Amino acid sequence: SILGGGVKAPRIKTKNLISIIFCEAVAIYGIIMAIIIGQGISAFDAEKDTDQIVRDSYDAGFRMFAAGVTVGVSNVACGITVGIVGSGAALADAQNSTLFVKILILEIFASVIGLFGLIVGILQIVGVKMGTK
Amino acid sequence: MMNYMPEMTFNVDHGYLEGLLRGFKSGILRQNDYLNLVQCETLEDLKLHLQSTDYGNFLANEPSPLTVSVIDDKLKEKLVVEFQHLRNQCVEPLSTFLDYITYSYMIDNIILLITGILHQRPINELIPKCHPLGSFEQMEAIHIASTPAELYNAVLVDTPIAPYFLDCISEQDLDEMNIEIIRNTLYKAYLEDFHSFCRELGGATAEAMCEALAFEADRRAFIITINSFGTELTKEDRAKLYPRCGDLYPYGLQLLAKADDYDQVRQVADIYGHYKELFEGSGTGPGEKTLEDKFFEQEVNFMKNSFMQQFQFGVFYAYVKLKEQENRNIIWIAECVAQRHRAKIDSYIPIF
């Protein structure tokens, strides 16, 4: 949409790249989650360790998986939403430049969906203990 | 899932073209521009005013005595260039959609050529008169046929409109039927085909397009009825020409087929709320708008509404129709200016 709208209204080119940057922000949420999950992983031995530790490790494993899936799915939804709203913003900006900021506010709300996903993921994963460390 | 949320995938194939088209749309002349044009005294003034709009220097290279037909040709050329650009860049299903838009021009061109042949006009005279959006490859070859039946077998059967001929006309009919009846039968087949194509596309495209096409179908039914009063067209023949994809189908069409004069047509329109308003207040007096003008206005409204939705093909159809209306407006104003007959110069249809 930015390409198409930019043919007749070249002024929209740089401002509308903000929409694309919003999409990149959700990718960063994914990286944050990956780092947090990575920190929690450590080795355990199902036979030699005590029952408590084995149970905790399995619990941690499931929690990490759930957190990863939560963040992943909410990022996909958020990215799609930001893309659709951003396309509308680019076309509206091409017609009338006062509309851009107003639609950008909507886009911020859309981007917050990804942030909520990250928060839920962190809540799921806080306090996990895997292995003997 | 892709069918339920077409917004997700539309931009992949068609986003650039939609953005480009909306840019074109913002170049359509506004009320201020029309007010400027109406105040022109000569065609040179008109050309000057058009230079400051999106049209730019499109008349720059024309030789000095500007005529209305030159302006008309150049306007059409501009629309054709934009349309061809869109058509060259698009993929399915948009390319089929744009092809459907050109079929109506093709039908007009074919009828023009057939009429010309029947009156023994040389082919070179006729080709420039055809609308460029409706040109097809076999146009040059039309002169080899001397009767419409030969024409069909040799040339038309390869065009994309051939199925419309099959649906409704047989070879003998082509020779006997009045040319206008052929045109209306073809157009009916085309409208119904386009309507079912849009309905299959579904989603927002179907919403925007089916409404506009239904209105077009009903409008044609009304116009055919009104024009056929006083001619030799029998009622059964008339009923065969009504397109069936509009709101009037089936009961309104039956009533229209039985109508004998303008008042009965009006009664049929009164049954349907939105057509009642169009018929009220229309007439041929000096201050009133004619029925045709009101139909044009309503069409412009539908087309403007289709721009309210994103991620659908209706905007392409709407742009072509609005550009046509704009061309008609400019030519009307140009004619009034050229003939210095300014009484009705204000009866153009404002778009934005």
UniProtKB/TrEMBL annotation, chain A:
It comes from the Eukaryota. It is a multi-pass membrane protein. It is found in: Membrane. Its main location: membrane. Proton-conducting pore forming of the V0 complex of vacuolar(H+)-ATPase (V-ATPase), a multisubunit enzyme composed of a peripheral complex (V1) that hydrolyzes ATP and a membrane integral complex (V0) that translocates protons. V-ATPase is responsible for acidifying and maintaining the pH of intracellular compartments and in some cell types, is targeted to the plasma membrane, where it is responsible for acidifying the extracellular environment. V-ATPase is a heteromultimeric enzyme made up of two complexes: the ATP-hydrolytic V1 complex and the proton translocation V0 complex. The V1 complex consists of three catalytic AB heterodimers that form a heterohexamer, three peripheral stalks each consisting of EG heterodimers, one central rotor including subunits D and F, and the regulatory subunits C and H. The proton translocation complex V0 consists of the proton transport subunit a, a ring of proteolipid subunits c9c'', rotary subunit d, subunits e and f, and the accessory subunits. This is V-type proton ATPase 21 kDa proteolipid subunit c''. It comes from Magallana gigas (Pacific oyster). The lineage of its organism: Eukaryota, Metazoa, Spiralia, Lophotrochozoa, Mollusca.
From TrEMBL, chain B:
One of its GO terms (molecular function) is proton-transporting ATPase activity, rotational mechanism. It comes from the Eukaryota. SUPFAM superfamilies: V-type ATP synthase subunit C (SSF103486). Keywords: Hydrogen ion transport, Ion transport, Transport. The keyword Transport applies. One of its GO terms (cellular component) is proton-transporting V-type ATPase, V0 domain. Subunit of the V0 complex of vacuolar(H+)-ATPase (V-ATPase), a multisubunit enzyme composed of a peripheral complex (V1) that hydrolyzes ATP and a membrane integral complex (V0) that translocates protons. V-ATPase is responsible for acidifying and maintaining the pH of intracellular compartments and in some cell types, is targeted to the plasma membrane, where it is responsible for acidifying the extracellular environment. Belongs to the V-ATPase V0D/AC39 subunit family. This is V-type proton ATPase subunit. It comes from Magallana gigas.
